Amino acid sequence: MKRYLKTGIFVALAIAGAAFIVYGIASGQAVAVLNKAIRICMECIGIG
Description:
The chain is mainly alpha-helical. The chain contains two helices and no strands. The protein has one domain (about 5-45). The model has no long low-confidence stretch (mean pLDDT about 90).
């Protein structure tokens, strides 16, 4: 595979990933994910 094609695919996927992260933060999903992560960690160590 040509180097420019690999680079293009990488850039396209990086931009798509960044767009999804921005969309998730803008729609308030970051707080929901953080709350779930805290809950899972508390259950793992036996507090929750």
